[in-house]
Amino acid sequence: MDKFKRTERIAAITRLLVESPNRLFTLTRFCDKFSTAKSTMSEDISIIADAMHKHGLGEIQTLPGAAGGVRFRPSMSRKQAYEEVEAISQVLCDPQRVLAGGFLYWSDVLSSPDIARKMGCIIAGEYYDAKADFVLTMETKGIPVALMTAEALGIPLIIARRSSKVYEGSAVNINYVTARGGIETMALARRAVKLGQKALIVDDFIRGGGTSRGMISLMAEFNVEVVGLAFVLAEDNPPDRHISGEKSLMLFTESKDGHMHVRPAQWLREKRVDGTDE
Q: What is the pTM of this model?
């Protein structure tokens, strides 16, 4: 039976936990894999947890009981999250990013794996306790952030489409009213979700909330509960928004001269419900 040094075990266990966020590993599994006693393995886990916490790299949780185990949850303190989002906001404030018609070019930001992973980590940190079964998004620029959120939560990503695809089998199609009063279609394969599940909606942008309301209606067709709505960028104080209770990482306002001002959302500066900034 192979013997492993503590440094080897810690390196391997850390890799296994980080590569499978929010997945529960039993202590017995690690003990069998590394041929060590539970007391020794508990010490190893404690060392990893202390290091993660000290350097703000995430949270190692140990759950007691027969169904318990160890899991890693990517997370940031509110202070760290605010600083990350503020840096992104400053990039988006560049006047050269404003296109004709008042559109903002930010595809390069949303497609950056590093930035998308950080935004997904921040969003996931707000919804761990919601216990969503999957993340739902539209087939838009928000897919990278939604995917990183799903990865951090350890759940699948489901993508609603503008129209059903033959290779996805039978689908549920709904019509919804956009924020501008138009009618559009949204489709989701019947096999994509199960009745009674919980969904976290994540999208790149919200103004009036028409598309988001459409996704909520689509989930109602599957008897799926929407446990949260999160967005990367939202218009600050729009005249008419069709949803409520959403969280956006950034807010934007547009001046009369067409300049776009982007800033972090206020909730990133507030302490969490438990009164901490962890």
A: 0.90
